[in-house]
Amino acid sequence: MNQKNIISASNNAALKLKVLAKEKERVRRKLVVTAKEKERVRRKLVVTAKEKERVRRKLAVAAEKLRLKAKQLAVTAKNLENANIVARNALEDLGIENSKVEMARAKEEAILVSIGDGLFATDKKGNITLINKTAEKLLGKKSKEVMGKVFSEVILMEDEKGVPIPLKKRPSSMALATSTTTTDPTYYYVRKDKTKFPVAIMVTPVILGGKVIGVIEVFRDITREKEIDKAKSEFISLASHQLKTPPTAIKLLTERLLGGKMGEFTKKQKEYIDDIRSSNQRMIDLVNALLNVSRIELGAFTIRVNEKNVCAIVQSILDELKSVIDKKQLKLKMISRDMNAMLMLDETLFRIVINNLITNAIRYTAKGGEIRVECKVVNKGQTLGGNLLKESCFVVVVSDTGYGIPRGEQSKVFTKFFRADNAREKITDGTGLGLYIVKSILDHSGGLIWFTSRENKGSVFYAAIPMTGMRMKAGEKELMS
Ligand code: ADP
How far apart are CA 293 and CA 434, in angstroms? Predict the structure, then answer.
């Protein structure tokens, strides 16, 4: 190869090298740009990753919140469901109860309407809301004539003399005003045809939430009872006269004989007459006791009260019994703590009570024993002889040191014809009616009787009359006339 060719080849090579260098430079520059771009992209990616992390965390928090909310909602939903079940059950129960109440109401109404006694019910204003068939029949009025009307305007009431009973005194008005259950048989109802009939009335207030919302009055025609009562009273009065007359005559005659006005008797004759006298006295006591018992059982005891000095009455009974007490050589102690206490008493009945208690103390105490009679006021709330007094009372306490009543027989002491075994053995005569009469009198007059006793030690009997006096129990007024 010549020099020329060599030069041109080297020039070409140099040119090529230049071109290659340029190309290399371009490629290098391109590479630099690409690296920068890569870096930028990397940075961007880092930022994106951080952002992604932040968003992820945010999402996680939000998700947790949602989870909690969902949990809460689930609980609420459960509670709601439970509440729903409870409400549903309550409604079901209510439904059942309602129908039960409805049934009971229907049943009660059916009973009320069909009972044999007359019945009407009123609201609190006294308007009649219900009247049964018997009442309609008794009064001669139809239900439509009285329903919704004030009872006192459509059911007229009078006393025995035909005087209208004022509204305030009508048993139903009294029950509405005082919410008490009243019974009073002394009134008469007037029928539609103006005839009248005696009624026994029982009024019961209907109370709701402590307030009277009406009354139910049940009444019965007692015409027949009144007739029977009258017949019984007449029989008792006849029997008392008939039975009492002969022994009263015998008593008078024996006393005359013993008084010596018919001449002197031998000792034996006197003894016989004395026996006749005491047997006759027992007969009188028995007749009196039987009459008292029949009066009690027929409700024929009238309680007529007057203001009396209680201690004075007790003292006078002791005076009457002095000879018997002396005869048995008994020591007697009378303690009057409230000498001047005055009480509304039926003296006859009170005497029967005290006389029985003292006579028993005398009878069931051996010779030489002691009898103690105490009269005193005992205040409400005090305990006496194991009995807590619910109201202030005047109490007569009769104690003795006698035979006492066997423990096993004590529960029967106030029953009719009871006589304890020890008493029967020692004292053969006795009716077993005295304490029954005593208890009946006190029961019927608002008093009380109780006792404590120990065999062979003695007995203590307590008779208490409320300081407000003897009174008739509600509902007995008519029976006791
Ligand atoms: P009576 O005395 O006529 O038998 P009571 O009814 O008065 O009838 O008394 C009933 C019974 O109670 C008596 O028989 C007696 O057993 C007993 N009793 C009553 N009072 C006493 C008393 N003070 N001491 C012992 N027993 C008594």
Answer: 9
d(CA 465, CA 443): 10
- Tell me which of 182 and 374 has the higher pLDDT: 374
Residue 246 burial (CB count, 10 A): 13
Please tell me the predicted confidence (pLDDT) of residue 185.
53
207 and 152 fall within a common domain: yes
pLDDT in tens, 125-173: 999 999 998 999 999 999 999 999 999 999 999 987 888 998 888 888 8
Residues 386 and 459 in one domain: yes
* Domain assignment present for 202: yes
Q: Which of 236-240, 273-277, 426-430 has the lowest mean pLDDT?
A: 236-240
- Element of type H or E holding 464: strand 458-466
- The candidate with the shortest Cα–Cα distance to 305, out of 342, 337, 338, 357, is 342
Decide which of 253, 280, 296 is a domain's last residue: 296
Query: For residues 84 and 130, which has the higher predicted lDDT (pLDDT)?
Result: 130
Q: Please state, for a pLDDT cut of 70, what percent of the chain lies above it.
A: 95
What is the pLDDT confidence band of residue 108, given thresholds at 50, 70 and 90? confident
* Atom number of ligand 1 nearest to Cα 435: 6
Measured from the Cα of 431, ligand 1's closest atom is 3
Ligand 1-lining residues (CB < 6 angstroms): 356, 360-361, 364, 400, 402-405, 413, 418-420, 423, 430-436, 459
- Of the candidates 114, 147, 177, which is a domain's last residue? 114
Domain limits for position 186: 118-221
Structure tokens belonging to residue 339: 């000498």
Number of H helices, E strands in the chain: 12, 16
Give yes or no: residues 53 and 132 share one domain: no
DSSP 407: G
Statement to judge: residues 77 and 212 lie in one domain: no
Entry pTM: 0.54
Angstrom distance (rounded) from CA 397 to CA 386: 13
> How far, in Å, CA of 263 to CA of 420, rounded?
43
